[in-house]
Structures are given as structure tokens and as C-alpha cells.
Specification:
Blueprint: H1 20-51, H2 57-79, H3 91-101, H4 104-116, E1 122-129, E2 134-141, E3 152-158, H5 165-168, H6 172-179, H7 185-191
Antiparallel strand pairs: 1-2, 1-3
This protein binds manganese (II) ion.
Length: 192
């Protein structure tokens, strides 16, 4: 059984950059939905294996990717936020960013432009790609499309409307720009 993480901060801890109401709904309703539906899908898959009835397998595999990826990305997203401006990238992360992007500002610029241009609902991630032995910035459509197999997400931002619409309306650029203040770099550093 997949369990929800408990938030490592209070609902109002990210204000004014990310308001308590959006965070509460995002965590209690949307994130919970992904975790619950992942567990329901696992139950249905178990039933299919037990009965040998795989007539619904295509739908179940799709649900597993969708809800499972939604649950994982939300966990990373909530974990890689924290009280405003308390942390910064480690020397190791800064060194890797400089090596792979030229400098920190260039990585940030690519991350922000990639986030702004996510088509409809999706995510933007800073990832480690073991196969390439380097960092990359990726977009992800919905939760599960456009990924690079085997990459390790380091920093993720939720670009679904539910993540910013209450507070920022259609102003994606402002959301991303202000969100940058509540990154918990301690968590990102550890993931690297
Ligand atoms: Mn979300």
C-alpha cells in the first residue's frame, strides 16, 4: 500500500509565494486522490492476476502510470519546497550545474522557459540522467509523458492549473518566478 507523505511544513509556511488554501487543496484532495487511485489500481491488477481476467489490462496499465506517476511527482514537489529562502544549492550541485549548463542562471532560465511552455497540464523537472552522466531540464506532459527513462528527478515544479490558479490565475510566469523562493535546496542537494 502506497502511503501519503506528511507535509514537512505547515500549510502557511510557504506564504506569500504559495498560499495556504492552494497548498491545502493540493495536498488533501489532489495528492490524496493520486495515492488512493494508485492503491485501487494495484488492487484491480491483483484481482486480474488472481482470476486470469486481463480483458481490462490496457486501461489498468494506463491508470497505474497516470496515478502512480502523479503520486510520485507530488511527493517530490511537496518535499522540494520549504520556508522561503532558507537553503541553497550545495557546492556539488553548483559544480554540476556549471559543468552541464554553463552557470546557474542559464539552468534557471531554461527551467523557467520550459515550465512556462508546458503544453496544458504537466511538470518541469531538473533531472540527473545516469546514461548521459549529466543534468538535464525536462518537461513532462500530464504526469507520465515525455520522460527520459532512468533519469533521476532532482527538482520538480507542478504546472497543472490546480497548483497555481487560485493564487496566480493565468499568470504562470509569476507563479514560477515566485515559486523559486520556496525551493528547499537541502532536499535537492541530497537527491543529487
Ligand atoms: Mn498537482
Amino acid at each position: 500500500m502506497l502511503k501519503m507523505i506528511s507535509l514537512p511544513y505547515r500549510y502557511d509556511a510557504l506564504e506569500p509565494y504559495y498560499d495556504a488554501q492552494t497548498l491545502k487543496i493540493h495536498y488533501e484532495i489532489l495528492y490524496k486522490g493520486y495515492v488512493d487511485n494508485t492503491n485501487k489500481t494495484e488492487e484491480k491488477l491483483n484481482l486480474a492476476r488472481n482470476t486470469g481476467d486481463f480483458s481490462n489490462i490496457k486501461c489498468l496499465e494506463k491508470d497505474l502510470s497516470f496515478y502512480g506517476s502523479g503520486a510520485i511527482l507530488h511527493k517530490l514537489f511537496f518535499e522540494n519546497m520549504g520556508k522561503p529562502k532558507q537553503t541553497e544549492p550545495s557546492e556539488a550541485l553548483k559544480w554540476q550545474i556549471q559543468k552541464d549548463f554553463g552557470n546557474f542562471e542559464r539552468m534557471k532560465a531554461q527551467f523557467i522557459e520550459a515550465a512556462k511552455s508546458v503544453e496544458a497540464s504537466g511538470w518541469t523537472l531538473l533531472v540527473w540522467v545516469p546514461e548521459f552522466n549529466r543534468l538535464e531540464v525536462l518537461q513532462c506532459e500530464k504526469h507520465q509523458n515525455l520522460t527520459l527513462w532512468g533519469c533521476v528527478p532532482l527538482l520538480v515544479i507542478d504546472m497543472w492549473e490546480h497548483s497555481y490558479f487560485l493564487q496566480y490565475k493565468t499568470n504562470r510566469a509569476e507563479y514560477i518566478d515566485r515559486w523559486w523562493n520556496i525551493i528547499n535546496w537541502d532536499v535537492v542537494n541530497k537527491r543529487l
